[in-house]
Amino acid sequence: MNYRVKANRDIVGKAREFFTDILDKNLLDGIIVPLELPSGKSYFPTLVKDKKLIERANPFVPVFQVSVATQVSKMTRLSPFEGKIGVVMRPCDLRNYVELIKFNQIDPTNLVIFGVDCYGVFDPNRFKDMAISGEKPADKFWDMVEKDDESELRRACRSCTTPVPNRYADVVLGYFGSSGDLLLMAQTEKGEEILSGFGFEEAGSLDEREKIVSSIKERRASFWEKVKEETRKETSGVDNLLAFLGNCIDCHNCKDQCPICFCKECFWESPTFEFQSSDYMDWANKRGGVRLPTDTLFFHLGRLAHMSSSCTGCGLCEDACPREIELQRLFKMVGENVQKAFDYEPGRDIEDRPPLTTFKEEELLELGE
Amino acid sequence: MDKFEPKILGFFCNWCTSSAADLAGTSRLHYPPNVRPIRVWCSGTVDTSYVIRGFLEDADAVVVGGCHPADCHYINGNYKARRRIKLLKTIFETLGLGEDRIYLKWISASEGVKFVREMTKITEETRAKGKSPLAGRWDI
Amino acid sequence: MGTAVIYGTSVAALRAAANIGKLGHRVYIINEGRYLGDRPSQLLYRKPRTICNTCLRFVLRRMPHVEIIHNASITGYEKKNGGFRVKVHYRESDVNERKCIECDRCLETGLIRAYRRPMGGNAYLVDWDKVSDPSALEGACPTGALNPRPAEKDLEIDAGAVLLSPDCTPEDDAALADFGYGKAPDVVKVTEIERWFSGTGPELEAFVRPSDGRVPDKVAYIVTPGLKGRDLSVGFEPFVNALENALSVKRLKEDIEITFFVRDLLLYGKGQWELLKKGLSKGIKIKRVDDIDVQGLEISWDGKSSEFDMIVLSPSSRPPERNRRVSEIFGLQLDERGYLVTKEDEPIETEIPGIFVLGEAAGHLTYIESLNDGAAAALRASRFLGEPEVKGQSLPPLLDIKEVDEPRTTVHLCKCALGDLDVDEVVRRIGEIDTVRSVKVSEFLCLEEGLKGLRETATDGETSRIVLAACSPWERGLFLQNKLRSFGFPISLTDIAEVRDMGVFPHAGEPAEAVVEKVIDLVKLSIEKIKFSLPYDQPLEGIVRRAVVIGNCIAAYKAALEITERGIEVLLLDPSEEDEVLASSSGKELLKAFKKGIGEKGIKVYKPAEIISVDGFVGHYRVSFRADGEDHDVEVGAIVIAGAGRKELPSELKELSHPGMVSFERYDGRTGEKGVTFFLPGVLSAGSRSTFTREGIGEVLRRATELKESNREIPVRVLYLDTPVFGKYADLEARARKAGVEFIPYWHEPGPSFAVDGETIKISYYDDRTGEKKELVTSILVPYPVIRPDISVSKRLSELLGLEIDDDGFFYYREDPYEEINAKLAPNDLGTNGIFLTGFAKAQKDLEGLIVDSEASAFEASVVLSKEKQPPQSGWVVSYTDFRKCAGCGFCVDACTYDARFIDPERKVAVVREILCQGCGACEAACPSGAAKLRVMNAKSLLSVVDKIT
Predict the structure, then answer these.
(1) Which end of chain B has the lower number of beta carbons within 10 A, N or C?
(2) B32 and chain A: CB distance < 8 Å anywhere?
């Protein structure tokens, strides 16, 4: 069932009311939702119990510091929540969430997922600067949505063709084509249970929303095609690839922030990579010299081999890179090609098996003979 | 002027391809000495990082050898290997790193002749292509 | 009388030798040929690409108590002392196979020739024509394997059991001239094509015509049995072989037109109907013909003719030539075809207790059946052999290696491996490799002087890694590693650098520097590989010496009896209340006898038993079941599943209701004006042929013949899909035809349909011979029932055990039975789970095949249970989890084919069940973080190997 809450453009305000009511009515024991930090510089996902804190909440905030899916996996990997907990996630993160469930990293028991429409986010540093200088990025965002002007948002977002949550969201909080109202859409029984007690008005026709979402998808798809082709040219061949990655300091921030990289200890940080001085000299002898730290290209190629089949293109890797390497478009490009090769789409279906955990007897027959 | 001699790194499964290599040896068949054979238990044991490392360590081609589909000693290791090789080839192709230098070959224990033929072919093809673009880079 | 004598080197003979040897009895193999592999064997002759070395290598290399006498023949025998005295005449071998290390030094004399064994390695024989003075051979062999003056000798062997298994005789090439063989170059045999693709044949890159090297567009396959006066009953393996071969040709080139000319469809085993359908779906045409004529490349049949680019013949073999001699010496009977006669309903056994006939000596057998014969023969023969003489070696405990994580490597270099290379140069360069403390050189590492050096190194208290730069693991490498273990040195800290077989032999003629480079890299490889290894020994676990047999069929009872015979406790759980389904009446007596035997031995039978759960793993299963109103819990070490069967009407007749239709069991001989039609079941609704009815077909043929002979005027017909001629029933079919019984073949697409037509039954069917839809009208229709697995039982068992079943209810397994020769060599698929299949759970077989198969399965189950302690199947290479790193993602569990890993629900980490782990490394490759590791050859060692040698 789809509902509409008249908001007169105060969509965030209505959303806050909604969450406050939920906590009031004890429909949930807690909600994970982005909260504004006291410093005002940014928003971070917070597990909220006290409804008073909801005053600072903004589920639609146009900044994406950390993956909520990753946080949920930290919390539930060893044991699920005992009480019912709501989790607010944007669409790309929701797909990461589905992947992490497949990897046994998230126990979804007792979780109620609130997916949000996402027009995109600012680069987090930009957001911080805007916030400090008084530009109010969270408010400016709504003007951008109205005017359909995404030019100041991250490239990752301008390439994203999933601006609305998939079917794994129990409730969707939407605003595309809502004429300034808050749309609340139940996609599952769990979602309906939450929404039905409120007496909300039915949403009516959502054609406008569908139209807008379609047009956004189309535009972004063709934008991404262009970006992908440029990226391909820019990184094709060893020289180009090394130039692209040239500044890399092997800090592994990208891996740390990547929601798909769930390993407790990364292979590239394991004792396998503890070498002796004689090993370094061997390399120097072989090639005339060896760049330090070693194995940066190995790290990237290996990380691609491990996670590209599940890469959702969320861009957290690029946001985290201290040397501003545009990793998002490199990884999304490779990810797409790999996913196409195996007819796999991350986040599409919880029952889909990650490509390397399964196989078919009659496939890829051109290989091997 | 030193002629370029390609370095071929081979990961050969213990039961099939390595046995074929042994058979080639005991039958005194001939193939070029460019191949460095590493005996692994199963083609499905070959981690993607071994293949990548091979190229980063100056291999001009990497061959993974295993049993024919449906004949794997460990039942289905070769099917897993096949998917892994497809993954690697896709990555290498997207990044223009020379996906044609990654080979997957099904060679069973009695196919000493096939082993020799394939190793010779791969060596010749790689010799013609020249050094791998990743080989010898100090800046990786 | 603990010795067995085996005459012949057929597939069945070698398997029997390996099995009896494994039991610890002495064996003599009497080989008429000059070396193992000299005589044509069934496998070599009919399926050269499938050949596996294992039995042979095992017998040759690992069982000194299995003695092989070459150039030998049996000259006589007599019964003596409760056993037999077998008289053998032989000529000593030129070369002692056990001592020969294939170093090739003797070839330098120019007086020796090397013969490539089809299964790998060489046999060396003296070219006596060139030898004027035998002293030229003295000293030519460094190991003393060469005998310059082989003498003719006589030997008398006192044996408890004699197994006769001479090899089949290939069809005469000259005799195939009537199919054009030898007349046109493009008429070839299936085995020749197999050799084009096989490692031991000539090198051919593609499938081409011998005459002009062109790829053929139209190929004809002729399965010769049944045509031009040949015996149809030996055509089964040739037909299936030809089909498999044609399919692999199709894989090479999709659009080659292939046509089969066969007398009839000759399928004998599980999955072969699927094979045929696959062939048909790929466009292979099957033409059933009464006979054909071949002129050059033109084939004529039934008034038609067609020209082909190439003709491939698939002939069968003839009974072993030696059968006549054997029958004379041992007083055994030969049948009209020339096969040795075995006891009625007791396969392998003859009228003389203790003398067995196995393999193709007794009749046309497919190679799988031959292998089974070998296993069953071992079982039966062992009853005549008393206590085994040869006990296994007990290993000393592992030495405590000082500072074992500090790699201090000693390299033992074998000069034999280096061939012509400069030894000093190689030693110098090896000495430069990191962690190498010392390099020791021996002339022959595997001989006494070399072994002494190994013992010194193993016990010197300093060395913590040993690398053997020698031939290869299969050659002498494994033997050397085991020797090191017997000195107390852990095998996981040793490795074999395959200098000879991978580095020197295949690169003759290449510039020396390139070869030395490779040799050094091979040694570096081994050194790096074990640098980070841990000392690890075979963990042993106690097992429960009890087995459970689950089934409602004759195979279940037989298996239970056999296991008891081997001194292992067994219980039988029959999941059904009903009587066992038998394919024919001949099984009834046997079943009664088995049941009586079970009663006498006091084996507990629970019928019906409802199985509630099965938990655990090989050696330690817990089976819970309910019987007689009580719940039972029992611990067993192995499980034999025999399944249950069902008898039903062919699916084509399920809708038909007519007084003229009488099922075969109730047929009373009534007739009618329009005659009697016996209907043999064809394709089941699931699409697979049920050949349990093989037995029944004999009965149908007899009935039809009797009927016709006493009712000359009315038509008697047999309507069938695939041939009703099976081995011994060939004569019945001939008699039936002679009496005037009509044999009407039908095609499965569209299948026959049956309709009521007043007082008669109308049958519409498609005659593939003429390509016409036909009809016939019959007064009486007698269908033979379909015998198939009871799917509900199979399904239940499959759920309980986590095993897959196919559409017919058979469990998936690999057709070729392997043995657990040593822990790493060749595990039997399901056998490694301690679960064995037979009867209705395995595949359709005729009664004899069923009995032999259930014995083979019982044998394998008893081998697993015969030891008190059991090392994990993979010996010393087993995987483990670094719990610190494990995120519990389950990729390793998905990757493990053997279910040896599971995620602990409490700790959320992957745990390994060592006894199931095969050490294949699939888990390690699947684990992204390196939490799943093999104890030997893990990522760290492999990556550093790659670093060092690329």
Answers:
(1) N
(2) no
